[in-house]
């Protein structure tokens, strides 16, 4: 996905499910709701950093809620998701780097 699609997805989640937008200049780079955050990572993936919870059952409910919210907005955009830790078809140079400072810095440090 290109940044513009990811921005549309994050904006949709924020508006529909009452998340606060995390902005860097005029670019959305994440979401915050209570003690939960959704962060945008260098290759366009985003991840949930959950709130500190007391039980595994609460964590399970939090993750399921996150997946429901992402899927609800993404399906309307014609986007599907896989829970993967890597991109099996692309090389590093083929992955679009997100425009926020943290992501650009990480990539410059790891792949000079």
From TrEMBL:
SUPFAM superfamilies to which the protein is assigned, alphabetical: Glutamine synthetase/guanido kinase
Sorted UniProt keywords: ATP-binding, Ligase, Nucleotide-binding
Segments passing through the bilayer: none
Any single GO BP term: glutathione biosynthetic process
An example Gene Ontology molecular-function term: ATP binding
InterPro entries assigned to the protein according to its UniProt record, in alphabetical order: GCL_bact_plant, GCS2, Gln_synth/guanido_kin_cat_dom
EC numbers, comma separated: 6.3.2.2
Name this polypeptide is given: glutamate--cysteine ligase
Classification of source organism: Eukaryota, Viridiplantae, Streptophyta, Embryophyta, Tracheophyta
